[in-house]
User: Fold YCII-related domain-containing protein from Saccharothrix espanaensis.
Amino acid sequence: MKYAMLICGDDRQWDALSPAAEQDIMKQVYAWFERWEPLGKIADGGVELQSGATAKTVRAGANGEPLITDGPYLELKEVVGGIVVLECDDVDEAVRIAATWPLAPGVSAVEVRPVVSRD
Assistant:
């Protein structure tokens, strides 16, 4: 079964990292992928998202027409900064794998959710 790992954190903490600190964290992330990919646990290599400040949000306006705003829908300190899709036997295995994600500055939580399959 597939599970989404939502990597959450504070953009401001990530943006405040020095280039050397960011590079060190990315080495840890690459090592994490090198650990789990050969075991067939990574269903999708994932994506790193740009800062929430670059986001656009589309929602229904008062008249039902799309209303587009800058930034995330809500002003939140913690936002989703990346997504990885895992292939696991059950949610417990997915959580065990997610618990090995590098919890570095700018990463406050890793949320695990089952992916809906409509086959």
Notes: The beta strands are 2-9, 42-48, 56-60, 66-70, 79-87, 109-114. The mean pLDDT is 89. Residues 2-114 form a domain with the Alpha-Beta Plaits fold (CATH 3.30.70.1060).
